[in-house]
Amino acid sequence: MDEPKKHQVSLRGASAKEISRDALLERVSQERELRNYTRRATAAALFIQVQFFV
To answer: What does the pLDDT read at residue 12?
Structure first.
């Protein structure tokens, strides 16, 4: 009987063979959180600059 094919999820070169699915999802979540934080910080900095120069 054929074994079911495993879907590989990758993130910047880390294949599912090298990292567990839970660890990969945690890493994805952390990177998403960092991007969101960076986006908010950039927006805040721009807001402050605009308020300062008006």
So the answer is: 62
Please report the pLDDT score of residue 21 as a whole number: 87
CA distance 1 to 15: 26
Q: Token pair 């959180």 is at which residue? A: 33
The per-residue pLDDT for 3 is 52
Which position has the token pair 């960092």? 34
Cα 11 to Cα 20, 34, 39: the distances in Å are 12, 15, 21
Q: Which residues contact 16 (CB under 8 A, 6 or more apart)?
A: 6, 7, 8, 9, 10, 24
pLDDT in tens, 3-53: 555 555 566 655 656 678 899 999 999 999 999 999 999 999 999 999 887
